[in-house]
Amino acid sequence: MHTSRLFTLVLVVQPSRVLLGMKKRGFGAGLWNGFGGKVQPGESIEEAARRELLEESGLTVDTLQKMGQITFEFVGNSELMDVHIFRADHYHGEPTESEEMRPQWFQLDEVPFHCMWPDDSYWFPLVLQRKLFRGYFKFQGQDTILEHSLKEVEEV
Question: How close are the terminal C-alpha atoms of the chain, in Å?
Answer without folding.
Answer: 25
